[in-house]
Amino acid sequence: GVLHEDLRLLLDTALPPKRKKVVLGVGDAKMGAAVLEELGVQCQTGGVVAELMRGIRLHFPALVRGLSAQSAAKAQLGLGHSYSRAKVKFNVHRVDNMIIQSISLLDQLDKDINTFSMRVRSWYGYHFPELIKIVPENSMYCRVAKFIGNRRELSEESLEGLEEIVMDSAKAQAILEASRSSMGMDISPLDLINIESFSRRVISLSDYRKGLQEYLRSKMSQVAPSLSALIGEVVGARLISHAGSLTNLAKYPASTVQILGAEKALFRALKTRGNTPKYGLIFHSTFIGRAAAKNKGRISRYLANKCTIASRIDCFSEVPTSVFGDKLREQVEERLAFYETGEPPRKNLEVMKEAVVEANEVVAEVKRRQEKKEKKRKKREKRRLEALAAAAEETAENSVMETEENDVGAKKKKKKKQQQPEESEPEPEENGVEEEEEEEPLPKKKRKVMVEPEQQEEEEKKKKKKKKKKAAAQD
């Protein structure tokens, strides 16, 4: 409701002194109310004003002197870019687009690794079928298959390597015994090479998946720490991805967050007039799995409520912390205990007061650290600028000194050519220090006399050169 200072200055300079008789046409009712409140000028909004504003926008380059249509188009493009940048948060660490992409890639990697691991099982199972029952995990099976290769070459010496992979001595011994009495067919070395290379690729994919999961955890702790502390990084990232952004998730009510991800079941239930779903993506949380069957709906509703609070805190807080998420998680734990044992949980008001106190302390500490980092950065920048300035001064001084030395040397050479140096040798004193006697300045007439024979010799040389050139030209 506060009028911008630039707009206030513009209206003050444009409007006549008697403002009460002036009626402004404003396209936005909120802006008209703000102008009326701040300046006391009546504003009119309606269909005619909207058409006038549209005409002004259409013919704006023709109405403003010095503004072409091309420059107006550029200005519109720049305004659109700045608006888009404003829509995306300025803090680079709090961009939730990376979370959406990483969780989508993580789900795709899970599917691909599962498919490739089944292919390795069916391929290597022709040679060693008993290994599938001993090592059921996909990534471990690929590592074991790559390590064993031909089962006939497996011996007691390979037990240590097998134990490192399967992390169990009994399993390693079982693999060794099964390899000696296996029913599998023999396999050629070329087939083994292909199986090992494919297993290596599956292992690298599983390793990359682990790194991507760590990256997702770090991003969630920066973007939505309270939501990740409450419901977990993966489930929180799936909620953000399904909603489209953290801002959209914060705008949803708790009833929508509860069934987020179960839209098909919801519309099918509405169409057939059946029971609507109790939970969607939040079913993957550990709280619903721990609750009894009769309490799953109640705990899912309570959890969705807390997820909505956590997402709003993460979205609109300046310095996001995980304090509120930890407190909300404690509340869900207390509600689970209440359903099982009947112990009454704490009130929400008390918990939130404690969380606000702790959050203020954490935020103060974070700001203190940021200020220290900013001071250190400014000091480093200042030192760097001082070093650059000193280096520039040194180079300037060196260049000036070089030019002065060159000028002095040139002057000395000219003086030596023009003047004939007197023979004055310094006399050595008793202590061995030589002192040069000061030369008395010669009178002007004597100087001219000394200089004249040298000039005559130079003129004679020039004349001889000219004569030679003329003779050569005549020849």
Please explain how this structure is put together.
The chain has 3 domains: 5-88, no CATH class; 97-214, Helix Hairpins (Orthogonal Bundle), CATH 1.10.287.4070; 225-367, Serum Albumin, Chain A, Domain 1 (Orthogonal Bundle). By secondary structure, it is an all-alpha fold. The model is unreliable at 421-451 (pLDDT under 50). It is flat and about 120 Å long. α6 (97-124) packs across α13 and α11 crosses α13. It has 21 helices and 2 strands. The chain has helices at 5-14, 29-39, 47-58, 60-63, 69-87, 97-124, 131-134, 138-148, 159-166, 169-180, 189-223, 225-231, 233-243, 246-251, 254-258, 263-272, 286-290, 296-316, 323-341, 348-418, 444-474, and strands at 23-25, 42-44. The protein has a two-stranded parallel ribbon.
Brief descriptors of the model:
single chain; 475 residues; Helix Hairpins; 3 domains; 21 helices
Question: How would you summarize this macromolecular structure in one to three sentences?
Answer:
The protein has 475 residues and is mainly α.
Largest sheet: 2 strands, parallel
Order of helices and strands: HEHEHHHHHHHHHHHHHHHHHHH
Q: Quick check: average pLDDT?
A: 82
Radius of gyration: 44 Å
GO molecular function, one term: snoRNA binding
InterPro entries: Nop56/Nop58, Nop_C, Nop_dom, Nop_dom_sf, NOSIC
Keywords: Nucleus, Ribosome biogenesis
Region (Disordered): 390-475
